[in-house]
Design brief:
about 70 residues; mainly alpha; 2 domains; 3 helices; elongated
């Protein structure tokens, strides 16, 4: 993970301040964790596992997980 962070941020971008670097790292880690396929979820991403659980038993959820996807504000 350290190598992934270093190659994706420090070596590719020049940040003007520490706050900008922190924000960039937070965005990268969130995207990495959101899209990573996990063995414990049988190769699904966490979001895919939540959507699968929702289709199997929607009564366990109070909201539709598909409504949580950020989209364009048009």
């Amino acid at each position: 993970m350290n190598r992934t962070i270093k190659e994706a941020t420090v070596k590719r971008f020049h940040d003007d301040s520490h706050d900008q670097l922190r924000q960039h790292l937070a965005d990268l880690v969130a995207a990495y964790n959101f899209a990573r396929r996990l063995k414990t979820l049988r190769g699904l991403t966490p979001y895919e596992a939540i959507c699968k659980a929702w289709t199997d038993d929607p009564s366990r959820f109070t909201n539709d997980p598909h409504h949580q996807i950020p989209g364009p504000n048009i």
